[in-house]
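Collaborator request, handled under Task 6.
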Amino acid sequence: MEENKTIFCLLGKSASGKDTLINMITSSNSNVSKLIPTTTREKRKYEKDGYDYHFISENAFMKKIEKNQFMEHRKYVAVTQSGTPNTLYYGTEYPQGHSSILTGPVDMYEKIKNNLLDSNNKINVVPIYIQVPDDERLYRMIRRESRNSKPNYREVARRFLADNREFNEEYMKSLGINETNTFVNLDKDLAAKQINEFINSTLFPDKK
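Structure tokens returned to the collaborator:
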């Protein structure tokens, strides 16, 4: 009989520290492995292929769709600096190990959850919400944007307000977010420790 698998989805608003936390968690918790997404966009200078993303061509991405290798996949149209629309694809492949963790946008989580409900795959999807007070989050967003050669603070404001609209209380409840799977990230070491405890208690409830 095939053993059930568990996927933990780390969710949160912009600048809540999701990428930092997922790397801390996977380096300190042998019970969970990082599920690396796939994309057709170009690799940024600071990114590593096979660690941040699997960077592949659009043709290779379409072949994976044909072979049903993705739990979910999405298409976005980005506008380049010259004003030309550029179609980008993102996808999440099925996990290989018993338990995995990944981070991404809310529509990724919803698609994974809904697609697995419609299939016979024995995979349990568990959301984890990372919370940061608005003033601290805005400070982080501005500080991060200031490092760019051409900071776009209007875009920072747009993302900040869009996040506050999207992550409203009613919507959070519909995602399965509650007090037990919400963690405040003002101290990343403490947040990673608490999330690890939640992951382990979810995977091994008899050891609580």
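The cover message to the collaborator said: "Strands lie at 5-12, 33-34, 38-39, 54-55, 70-79, 85-93, 99-103, 123-131, 182-184. The chain has a mean pLDDT of 90. Please let us know whether this matches your experimental observations."
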